[in-house]
């Protein structure tokens, strides 16, 4: 009984410590546009997401304790309890970091709340897009982009097919792009992405159905989302008139898909098997604010599109090797 009380006290102390950290960071909530509670709506969104994740972490901790209590051996039971508590602390720290990241991104964007205009009248038809494609993200049906890269798991090959298929999402007719990833000849991911281009030339990302495979069988749909479902909203995948320093959301589905990007250069140079591009590339840093380990530098050549992805930490590259047409 004494040990149980000690665990409860430690759990309460963990919660109190997290609240203190949040309040220390949250002093900034006093500024900016506010809602009735004295917070910008975007900060309220981050706070509610924090509470949800904190509750989930607490639930996981209690479940781990329940499993530990069922172990027969005393030492094994003790170790399992300690591991559960350590994991709980690690997750609380990660939850705090994600909260701060959401606040920082919303502030850098000057957001009251994320609410893009999705009026179907603002978007082109697929035929209009094919006739006036964004130079850095050309959505021309029948085009197939082939990429390769060496990874720790083996040779990765990526086939990106701009199909003739469309999917209507929230009244907007989106072009279906099929993205197939193979590692050493085995398909590990098969994704349908949905894109639309507005009348200003900006390309929007409306969601994806991402199927992960193992030995030819489906084992996960991680990262799948669709605009209009469960609060998910589209983001910009490519601007018509990109500017250095622009930061933007590429997707918005809380706790599931929150990728963002920053434009680093409009005159970058790179060389890939398909060609060499000197001083003409758009370079971006694409990141996940809620996970600092996710960072990719991408290069786009005008008239071609995406040509190179580089992991700045590992140096791994995925390079354009060919473009085909049906």
Task: Describe it.
The chain is α+β, with helices and mostly antiparallel strands and 326 residues long. The protein folds into 2 domains: 2-109, no CATH class; 120-325, YmcC-like fold (Beta Barrel). It is 29% helix and 40% strand. The chain contains 4 helices and 15 strands. The protein has helices at 2-25, 41-69, 74-109, 126-131; strands spanning 143-151, 154-169, 172-183, 186-197, 203-214, 217-220, 225-226, 233-238, 247-249, 251-252, 260-272, 275-288, 291-301, 305-310, 317-325. The chain has a 15-stranded antiparallel β-sheet that branches. A hairpin with a 2-residue loop joins β1 (143-151) and β2. α2 (41-69) packs antiparallel against α3 (74-109). 26% of the residues are buried. Residues 1-36 have low confidence and may be disordered.
Give the SSE string: HHHHEEEEEEEEEEEEEEE
Indicate the proportion of strand residues: 35-45%
Number of strands: 15
Overall pLDDT level: 89
Q: Output the structural class.
A: alpha+beta
CATH topology of the largest domain: YmcC-like fold
Total DSSP helices: 4
* CATH first level of the largest domain: Mainly Beta
List the helices and strands and how they pair.
Layout: H1 2-25, H2 41-69, H3 74-109, H4 126-131, E1 143-151, E2 154-169, E3 172-183, E4 186-197, E5 203-214, E6 217-220, E7 225-226, E8 233-238, E9 247-249, E10 251-252, E11 260-272, E12 275-288, E13 291-301, E14 305-310, E15 317-325
Antiparallel strand pairs: 1-2, 1-15, 2-3, 3-4, 4-5, 5-6, 5-7, 5-8, 8-10, 9-11, 11-12, 12-13, 13-14, 14-15
Helix pairs in contact: 1-3, 2-3
